[in-house]
Amino acid sequence: VAVPIPPEALLKVKPMKYYLIASAGALGSANAFLHQNYLNAKQRTVALGSSTTGTDAPIGSVKSMFSDFLNEEAMLSTSSFPIKPSALIDRAKEVLSPTISIGTKDGGECLAEDFEFCAAVVGPIGRKEYLSALGSFSLEEAFDITPNFFGLTVDPMQPNRVWFFNRVKGVHVGTFMGAEASGKEIAYPPQTLHLDFTEDGKVKEFGFYTVDRRQGNTGGLGGAFGFMYGVGKPLPIPECQPYKRSLRFRLLNFLGGLGQKMKKKKE
After folding, report:
1. pLDDT tens digits for 1-33?
2. I need a surface site. Which of 2, 37, 58, 227 has the fewest CB within 10 A?
3. Is 3 buried (19+), middle (13-18) or exposed (0-12) by CB count in 10 A?
4. Quick count: other Cβ atoms within 10 Å of Cβ 27?
5. Can you give the pTM of this predicted structure?
6. What's the rounded Cα separation, in Å, for the pair 134 and 234?
7. Closest by alpha carbon to 30, among 254, 258, 252?
8. Of 123, 143, 119, which is closest to residue 227 (Cα–Cα)?
9. Cα–Cα distance measured from residue 211 to residue 215, given in angstroms and rounded to the nearest whole number
10. 117 in helix, strand or coil?
């Protein structure tokens, strides 16, 4: 349970100590909140004889933080966006097809003038810079790529956006970043991607993030960075390396574990 720390006490400590106290307090508060929610849910389950979710919960029951599900069909049916969900998904598939490839094969014709690309590390960048950057990598000359798209769905809270996943596979068949063809198969972690469309079907925004860094053999990296790491030629910057906990985060985890051990001994 988090113990309140008087503000005047924080003013007397050095910056690093302040960081540790504040961070530990925040972690303690978060743990206390999650633990209390767990206990509340457990009590409700015992009292009701079964779990409750969403609109099935009895009147007067306490709402769980994980119980809400949107009525997607109803929300999308009242959307003012002119392209209907099924047509928008068809348009997304067209934009992803080999003849368009999100603007790289049609000269950017599918992209809006104010298009932006924004990923976990790169971006936001504009239309011209996006097309120039992808052209400079020449990924298709160095790799036999299978994107493996799946799970396309329209966002009911942002009805001009299509979300989807992919699990990229690529075979190293040509020279890339100075690394000669090796025949190595590169498997990406799953990535979640999105396409935002204008009312006339142009792509306004494209972006993606990796969602399970423990899968694949790219060190959890996506985009072009995944291929760089896969052939042993990552850029010498932290953003192009596998995730590594910072010293401060490791210290906080150590202190948290130590605190739990001390608590168990007292109990």
Report:
1. 344 444 444 444 444 444 444 444 445 544 555
2. 58
3. exposed
4. 16
5. 0.71
6. 17
7. 252
8. 143
9. 9
10. strand
